[in-house]
Amino acid sequence: MGGTTAILGSLDADGRFEVLSELRTTPLAAPVETLRQAAGIVGDSGRGIGAIGIGVAGLVDFDGGIVLKAPNLPTWEGFAVREEASRLFGVPSVADNDCNVFAAGAVSLGEVPSSGLWIVITFGTGIGGSLVLDGAIQRGRGQAGEVGHMSIQAEGGLACPCGSSGCWERYAGREALLAYYRDSGGDPEDIEPRSIADRARNGCGSALEAFDRLGAWIGRGLANINNCFFPHGIAIGGGLTGAMDLWEQSARRRFRENAMLPVWNVVVLEAVSSTGALGAAVLASRLLMGREDAP
To answer: Up-side HSE of residue 108: CA atoms within 13 Å toward CB?
Structure first.
């Protein structure tokens, strides 16, 4: 359940995954209605289900199955998503942060190594993060990995829906790119990153400047993460990675300036929007198997 899209998928007993549907999500939609819509689609598919896994864009109490905070989905805050999903679908369920389920999917596909410390970051409507050690998600006390909300501009930082200011995702997320484009004289009617990327690749100065500014902030944030963890690697995904050719040079330059040990080991995960849904299904399968990493 992301800030703009939800992917529904099915994982069978042989490990085959299939996307069933894609739903548009809106920040103010009632979460129970979204779950009812999803349950209807699953019911219409005729599939027998054993468990449900759900990833939500926000802070999720993994053990309790409650959404604690969701800046981009405010109506989900305080929602007992695991309990409600179990009631609607009639099977056990598990809920986690959307980047955590994305990371679980990437590990299951072999895109994130199952050994070493890896930081998985998704760049999209917001910025999600997950800590993966030897293939297992590290949640700390339950909500570790919210790199998008580390304060990266302490003085006069932009206000964030999370209640803080200067958060990284306010400078290196989707809305930031749109703002940079408008500020540099770009067409205010062009509000999609993909169209801005197309213009940049055709030599549009406003679009190129927007991606250069975006890359600088991405690089600064990656340097902070590198300084804190010095991981074996940083794996990135999400919509904005599709335009990495436009911002990578700027990001690398700022990374070199800010990283104590500027070893750039950033890998791009395959741009598959269903990876998060696959990861949620993997958590559901672990729940059925009684694994320790399921509540």
So the answer is: 22
Same domain for 16 and 95, yes or no, is yes
**CA 139 – CA 168 distance, rounded (Å):** 20
Is 180 among the domain residues?
yes
Structural domain span for residue 177: 113-268
In a domain, 81, yes or no: yes
Cα 258 to Cα 267: distance, rounded to the nearest angstrom: 19
Most distant CA atoms of the chain, gap in Å: 56
Alpha carbons 78 and 123: distance in angstroms, whole number: 25
In whole angstroms, what is the distance from residue 130 CA to residue 106 CA? 11
Are 97 and 148 in a shared domain?
Answer: no
Please give the chain's pLDDT, 295 residues, in tens. Answer: 877 788 999 998 888 999 988 888 777 788 999 899 888 888 888 788 899 999 998 899 999 999 999 887 889 999 999 999 999 999 999 999 999 999 999 999 999 999 999 999 999 888 999 999 999 999 988 788 999 999 999 889 999 988 899 999 999 999 999 999 999 998 877 678 999 999 999 999 999 999 999 999 999 999 999 999 999 999 999 889 999 999 999 999 999 999 999 999 999 998 577 899 999 999 999 988 876 465 5
